[in-house]
């Protein structure tokens, strides 16, 4: 009697289905709960981001709206930094930068990665080999370093950062979508679509792809959580968006030396903002992946 | 016999694939570097230098030749083990990397051990006690570990333990100012100091290590804990666990003898990624703590457009990446009889 000899995935499927309702009831509530929390946070941050374009307590880019190094007070909720800029206004304004760049980069990576991965997996052969080798080359770089190198190559600027960060993320999508397409390529619905005379591209984009997107969407939200951190890291190093403009990572960098002399508030609030944004995306992605698996 | 032959052939094709990846990384970096700075002579000569001096420097560095020829020359040097000379340190890049490697290895090794152990324990406890307080706490900390930038964690730790509580030393590298490195045998300062009986130095080195170690270990812990929890939950949901429960086997046996084995594979995969990340110098952790490792070296190199140094570092990271994943594949085949190479 050796129980360990049968961890067979394919044989597990019929029985897991019978097993699922029990598990679903157990896990659904907290999952849905954390997903809802994530969605609410992202929505709030989006509102703040858009709102900051119309109103902030002080001009976020102006220095000297208060004395330098003022701790949080009724006047300056998050205090002021070394040039006397209002940290609260800057944290608000930076939401537009960080949330915007993160969403745009993930969207580009999602679209490009999905198309490339789908075509690569569907066409196969030499195209597939070349594409996958190239993706492996990109992944052999330490991610942050690749981003730093590319930003150095194309120069700073919001648009450049978006493109660079999305390129770093693309291999993940390519691999994921390709694997999905490969596993479903010969399923009945695909064969049926082919047999009734659909063109190859129609089979791929109208039949196979829509049936492969669930895990990709879930992953894109987990990926967004990572992208938010990478964007902030680039800002922290001082590569990326224009120096001086409000971005959470570069705000932390501006307060880095002050922390050692005790002025904690300059770096802490933007850091918490990154945590909140990134965690929110992660919770959404986690929930999406989970519900996708249970379907 | 034929199985053995087939296996060594597929290992060979993996090796070729790995070489292709390394070559691709080297090539991409070379041309990216050319885009960043088409004419690095400006980094070497003063702005006032006349054209003759510039031409001379260009010729000396081989920059007067066509880019493709430079590329071939560069590859030739690489094959001979010559990574070029860093202009900011004036040393051969290979020597620079080798002298900074021990600092990175020391930090990464301890962090990997601690981060992985804590991650595995938290993941297992979370899965076994699903929905309990421990599980919720573990999940909360895990999400924080995934969502917090490491440089921010490092800064907050510095603020709390160095500035406010005053129980940790400041970010000045591996040893406090004024202490001399112990004689080098392993390259790990703490161990070297112990070996030579310098207890005070070992203690000081441990104190310097504490905060960067916690920072890096936290970043390693989070993905491991998440992977272990998910894999363990899946295993606990499987048929053989239900069968074992129905047969009346003790919970302990089921959890730790049967379910745990199936957690090994996903954890190995995650570990491969984490090892690559830690050993290629967690750039920003080293940056925040002024840790003199290769991550810090790469950061400086990028900020000073020191291309030989960047290319050398990227080559190291790429080789590390392919070696780790090659080992992972071999290990996979060893651990899981269903996997064939």
Notes on the structure:
The complex is a heterodimer of chains A (295) and B (341). Chain A is mainly alpha-helical and 295 residues long. Chain A has helices spanning 9-52, 87-123, 125-140, 143-154, 158-184, 188-195, 200-208, 213-237, 248-260, 265-294. Chain A has a domain at 98-295: MetI-like fold, CATH 1.10.3720.10. Chain A starts with 8 loop residues before the first helix and ends with a helix. Chain B has a domain at 98-293 and 320-335: MetI-like fold. Chain B is 73% helix and 0% strand. Chain B has 14 helices and no strands. Chain B has helices spanning 2-36, 51-61, 67-79, 93-128, 133-147, 150-164, 189-195, 199-236, 239-246, 251-259, 264-279, 283-288, 294-303, 307-335. Mean pLDDT of chain B is 86; it is low at 1-5. The interface between A and B is large, with 57 and 59 residues.
């Amino acid at each position: 009697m050796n129980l360990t000899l049968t961890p067979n995935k394919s044989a597990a499927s019929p029985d897991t289905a019978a097993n699922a309702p029990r598990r679903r009831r157990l896990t659904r509530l907290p999952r849905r709960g954390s997903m809802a929390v994530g969605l609410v946070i992202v929505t709030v941050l989006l509102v703040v981001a858009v709102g900051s374009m119309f109103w902030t307590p002080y001009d976020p880019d102006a220095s000297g709206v208060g004395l330098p190094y003022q701790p949080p007070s009724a006047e300056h909720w998050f205090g002021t930094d070394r040039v006397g800029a209002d940290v609260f206004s800057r944290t608000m304004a930076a939401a537009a930068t960080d949330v915007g760049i993160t969403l745009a980069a993930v969207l580009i990576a999602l679209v490009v990665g999905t198309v490339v991965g789908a075509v690569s997996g569907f066409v196969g052969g030499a195209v597939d080999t070349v594409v996958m080798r190239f993706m492996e080359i990109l992944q052999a770089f330490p991610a942050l370093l690749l981003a730093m190198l590319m930003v150095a190559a194309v120069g700073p600027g919001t648009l450049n950062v978006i493109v660079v960060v999305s390129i770093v993320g693309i291999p993940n999508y390519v691999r994921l979508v390709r694997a999905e397409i490969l596993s479903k390529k010969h399923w009945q619905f695909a064969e049926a679509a082919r047999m009734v005379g659909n063109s190859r591209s129609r089979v791929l984009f109208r039949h196979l792809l829509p049936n492969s997107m669930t895990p990709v969407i879930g992953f894109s939200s987990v990926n967004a959580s990572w992208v938010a951190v990478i964007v902030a890291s680039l800002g922290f190093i001082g590569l990326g968006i224009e120096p001086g403009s409000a971005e959470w990572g570069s705000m932390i960098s501006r307060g880095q030396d002050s922390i050692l002399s005790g002025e904690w508030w300059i770096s802490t609030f933007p850091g918490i903002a990154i945590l909140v944004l990134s965690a929110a995306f992660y919770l959404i992605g986690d929930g999406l992946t989970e519900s996708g698996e249970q379907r | 016999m034929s199985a053995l032959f087939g296996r060594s052939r597929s290992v060979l094709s993996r090796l070729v694939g790995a070489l292709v990846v390394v070559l691709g990384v080297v090539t991409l970096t070379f041309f990216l570097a050319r885009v960043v700075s088409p004419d690095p002579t400006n980094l070497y000569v003063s702005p006032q230098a006349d054209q003759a001096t510039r031409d001379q420097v260009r010729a000396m560095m081989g920059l007067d030749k066509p880019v493709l020829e430079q590329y071939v020359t560069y590859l030739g040097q690489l094959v001979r083990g010559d990574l070029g000379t860093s202009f900011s340190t004036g040393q051969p890049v290979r020597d620079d990397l080798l002298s900074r490697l021990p600092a990175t290895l020391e930090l990464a090794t301890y962090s990997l051990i601690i981060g992985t152990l804590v991650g595995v324990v938290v993941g297992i406890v979370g899965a076994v006690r699903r929905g309990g307080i421990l599980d919720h706490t573990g999940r909360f900390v895990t999400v924080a570990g995934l969502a917090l930038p490491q440089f921010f964690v490092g800064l907050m730790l510095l603020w709390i333990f160095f500035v406010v509580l005053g129980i940790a030393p400041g970010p000045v590298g591996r040893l406090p100012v004024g202490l001399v490195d112990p004689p080098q045998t392993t390259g790990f300062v703490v161990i070297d100091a112990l070996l030579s009986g310098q207890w005070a130095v070992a203690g000081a080195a441990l104190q310097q290590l504490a905060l960067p170690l916690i920072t890096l270990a936290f970043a390693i812990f989070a993905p491991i804990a998440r992977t272990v929890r998910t894999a363990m939950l899946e295993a606990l949901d499987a048929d053989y666990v239900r069968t074992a429960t129905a047969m009346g086997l003790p919970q302990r046996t089921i959890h730790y003898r049967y379910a745990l084995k199936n957690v090994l594979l996903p954890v190995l995969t995650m570990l491969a990624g984490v090892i690559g990340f830690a050993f290629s110098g967690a750039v920003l952790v080293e940056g925040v703590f002024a840790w003199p490792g290769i991550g810090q070296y790469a950061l400086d190199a990028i900020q000073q457009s020191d291309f030989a140094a960047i290319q050398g570092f990227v080559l190291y990271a790429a080789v590390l990446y392919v070696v780790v994943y090659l080992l992972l594949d071999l290990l996979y085949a060893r651990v899981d009889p269903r996997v064939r190479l």
